[in-house]
Specification:
The complex is a heterodimer of chains A (about 375) and B (about 150). Chain A is built from 21 helices and 2 strands. The longest helix of chain A has about 30 residues. Chain B contains 3 helices and 8 strands. A 6-stranded antiparallel β-sheet of chain B has the order 3-4-8-7-6-5, with helices on one face. Chain B folds into 2 domains: about 110 residues, TATA-Binding Protein (2-Layer Sandwich), CATH 3.30.310; about 45 residues. With about 150 residues, chain B is α+β, with helices and mostly antiparallel strands. Helices cover about 45% and strands about 25% of the residues of chain B. The chains are: A mainly alpha (about 375), B alpha+beta (about 150). At the A-B interface, α7, α8, α14 and α21 of A face α3 of B.
Chain lengths: ~375, ~150
């Protein structure tokens, strides 16, 4: 064997390594992936999602890794997760099943008027849509960016996958990041929008809700959503099934699986698949940065929308609602409700708003799903 | 008259899209169509071709655009662009037998803002219905529970 032949062989081997195909853009993506892993591990921001997402970003941004493509006509590992989980829109629906199995709708059933707060808190979704169109996005992309303000991860993933799958990574990241930052984003807006007197409003204790009402609730909700916004029934149907399983009390094993093992499994697949969509070639442009900027504004306007809705309702109500619970209309269960409770306690140490805020918080989930349904109906 | 137009229509249909000479804001115009009214933002035309022939023409002419959808309504076919084209919609009437009316509308903010406002109100309506449903079911259940308790006692 000659020296030249050995050199050729070495050159051939070198070609098959990632080092030869290295690009500087990949380093930027490692940084982004590491940032989200840092937020998850050190800051404990939505670790269940940001950790697998961060790792997904990190691992797909190495040259030649067989993860998000096809080898000899066969889909690679993360491509399979992505295809069956997200392209088929399965994972968000299963997550909603688990969420339904975890959720107690009692506070919402006891005070149904808080549903309107959940609707008002979708204000930012529609305003952001306009801003996004102005920035040059298509209408479908604008709808998928707007829904970030609803602060509902699975709904954002579901709608984005449906309308603008190319924005899945940045949209999901923005949604989950801002959900984690609710305690930072909302309090200044809440203080700005309310007076000292309003923050001290005491609300009457919620009435007890019977088991029959809790069983009937998912059926009534599923029926109304199916009639009015059928396009979003895959999400809401699963949400209500999970809740019916929980409230009926007759399928404990299924309920436990839905809220535990099944939820955890799909969360892993969701996180890693979303992260894996963010390859440097697709991600490094002005659009994701813009989405992050606009997402923050979106979130803020949604918070304003919820508080404003309570203020308008108070003009007509005998028993006033504390506007601090309006901010919980942005979904982000139960973080947003906890923020209302903490802010309320700051101004009156005996005024516990948590259960009152859970009403708009749960209404926000239904409201953001309804808004997503409106957008799907608009484009389908 | 229709027979005369048909070969011309087929000729235009088989041509590549860029060769359609006439357009309004980039929306191809049906060959042989007669303009009824034209402003900067709206064009109304009539054509001796049937509704179905015109739909076939537009399907062919717009097949390259992925953000275009065709909605089959009772009175018309509505072609809508969700992308970045300068026109927003093309409405092709179904009702008239001898002539088909086509209306092309410019992409406009009135439509976008209008649809967003309506959909925002729509979210309120959905949750309002749910609220009413919950009040009604709450009343029914609490009454039936009270009756059951009264019977027991």
């Amino acid at each position: 064997m000659t020296v030249n032949e050995i050199m050729d062989m070495l050159y051939g081997i070198f070609h098959t390594t990632g080092v030869f195909n290295f690009q500087w853009k990949l380093v930027v993506m490692w940084g982004i992936g590491s940032l989200f892993m840092y937020l998850a591990i050190v800051k404990k921001y939505e670790p269940l999602l940001l950790l697998p997402i961060g790792f997904g970003i990190f691992i797909v941004n190495f040259p030649l890794v067989p993860l998000m493509g096809y080898s000899h006509g066969h889909a690679q590992l993360l491509q399979i997760f992505y295809h069956y989980g997200l392209e088929w829109e399965v994972i968000p629906c299963i997550i909603f099943l688990g969420l339904g199995a975890m959720t107690d709708f009692g506070p919402l059933i006891a005070n149904p008027k808080t549903l309107l707060v959940g609707a008002g808190a979708q204000l930012g979704v529609f305003i952001t849509f306009t801003g996004t169109v102005l920035a040059g996005f298509t209408l479908k992309e604008a709808a998928s960016v707007g829904i970030i303000g609803g602060a509902d991860g699975p709904t954002t993933v579901y709608l984005t996958q449906h309308l603008a799958p190319q924005l899945l990574g940045p949209n999901a990241l923005a949604a989950y990041s801002y959900m984690a930052m609710v305690p930072l984003i909302q309090p200044p807006i809440m203080r700005l929008m309310t007076s000292q007197k309003e923050r001290k409003i005491r609300m009457r204790q919620l009435r007890p809700v019977s088991k029959q009402e809790k069983i009937l609730f998912p059926l009534v909700t599923a029926a109304i959503i199916a009639l009015l916004v059928p396009s979003v029934i895959p999400l809401m149907g699963m949400f209500m099934l999970g809740n019916l399983m929980k409230e009926s009390g007759v399928v404990e094993r299924l309920t436990e699986t839905s809220q535990g093992a099944l939820m955890n499994i799909v969360t892993i697949f969701l996180g890693i698949s979303v992260g894996a969509t963010m390859h440097a070639d697709k991600f490094l442009s002005w659009k994701p940065l813009f989405i992050f900027g606009l997402g923050l504004a979106d979130f803020a306007v949604c918070t304003v929308g919820g508080i404003l809705t309570v203020k308008v309702m108070n003009l007509f109500l005998k028993e006033k609602i504390n506007p601090l619970i309006g901010s919980a209309g942005v979904s982000a269960v139960p973080m947003a409700a906890r923020v209302s409770q903490i802010q309320g306690l700051k101004y009156d140490k005996t005024n516990h708003l948590l259960m009152h805020a859970m009403g708009p918080n749960l209404a926000g989930v239904i409201g953001s799903a309804a808004a997503a349904g409106m957008f799907i109906a608009m484009f389908d | 008259m229709k027979k005369l137009w048909f070969p011309i229509f087929i000729f235009f249909l088989t041509m590549p899209v860029p060769l359609f000479a006439d357009d309004f804001l980039g929306a191809p115009l049906i060959p042989g169509g007669q303009t009824i009214q034209k402003t900067k933002s709206r064009l109304e035309m009539k054509s001796p071709l049937s509704h179905d022939e015109i739909v076939v023409f537009y399907r062919q002419a717009l097949k390259e655009y992925k953000d275009i959808k065709f909605r089959d309504w009772k009175d018309s076919t509505y072609i809508e662009d969700d992308g970045k084209l300068r026109w927003h919609s093309i409405t092709i009437s179904k009702q008239d037998k001898d002539e088909t009316y086509i209306v092309i509308v410019k992409d406009n903010w009135t439509w976008i803002i209008g649809t967003l406002v309506l959909r925002f109100i729509g979210v309120f309506v959905v949750l309002l219905f749910l609220m009413v449903g919950m009040y009604i079911s709450g009343i029914i259940i609490s009454r039936s529970v009270k009756k059951l308790e009264a019977k027991k006692s």
